Every structure is written in structure tokens, then in C-alpha cells.
Amino acid sequence: VTEEIDRLPAGLSDDLLATLAEALSNVGRHATAGSASVTVEQRSGSLSLVVVDNGRGMPAGPNPGHGLSNILWRAANHGGRCTWRPADGGGTVMEGQVPVPIAGP
């Protein structure tokens, strides 16, 4: 976590934790990774979650099972998005971002 996260809208913190749990579960079950890193950052009216692993990467046409579908649904439910791409040097990068209203003073 890069800095303190402002109060999040109702349900977003639960969905953030559920998404993180699902992403790490997928790394543990499918990636054959030796390590993974997690970054949570809030800035410029958005909250981002990035999970990077050094595993074998995703197949070219991944079949979005329940885990990936749930991650996509949670992001869309908050007006956001989630993508996956190959990591530099091998592995996978999952990037999720949702808009978050900027907290007032």
C-alpha cells in the first residue's frame, strides 16, 4: 500500500479484499510462481490493485472461470475494469482500477 487509503465507498473495501484473495488464490493454484507482489494505490480519484507474479503466465485464450469472472464483475460493479497481461520476464500482471470520489477536507 503506497499510502493511507481514504474511506472507501460502501462495499468497495470488501470487494477489494475479495479480489485480492481471488487473485492470490489463482497465483497459488495455477501460476507455479515463486513469488507475487501486491500494490494498492489511491490517487487522482481512482483506486488501483496490481498483482504481479513470476509464474508461467496465462494461456493465450484463458477460460474465465468463476474466479476471473468474479474479479471482472466486482470491478465493473464499481464502474471500473480489470485486465491481465504478461509480466516482463515471465508471469502475469493483473491490473484493476475503479473510480473513487476524492474525499473532502
How much helix is in the residues? 25-40%
How large is the share of residues in beta strands? 25-35%
- Report the uncertain regions: none
Structural class of the secondary elements? alpha+beta
Kindly state the mean pLDDT as a whole number?
Answer: 89
Shape: globular
Oligomer: single chain
H/E series: HEEHEE
User: What order do the strands of the largest sheet run in, or round the barrel if closed?
Assistant: 1-2-4-3
Tell me the Rg in angstroms: 14 Å
Number of separate helices: 2
How many angstroms does the end-to-end distance come to?
22 Å
The largest sheet, given as strand count, sense and whether it forms a barrel, is: 4 strands, antiparallel
**How many runs of DSSP E, i.e. beta strands?**
4
Tag the structure with descriptive keywords:
105 residues, four-stranded antiparallel sheet
Q: Could you please describe the fold and organization of this structure?
A:
This protein is α+β, with helices and mostly antiparallel strands. It is about 30% helix and about 30% strand. It is built from 2 helices and 4 strands; from the N terminus they run αββαββ. It has helices at about 10-30, 65-75, and strands at about 35-45, 45-55, 80-85, 90-100. Strands 1-2-4-3 form a 4-stranded antiparallel sheet, covered by helices on one side. α1 (about 10-30) runs antiparallel to α2 (about 65-75). The longest helix is centred in the N-terminal third of the chain and has 20 residues, at about 10-30. The radius of gyration is 14 Å and the shape is globular. The model has no long low-confidence stretch (mean pLDDT about 90).
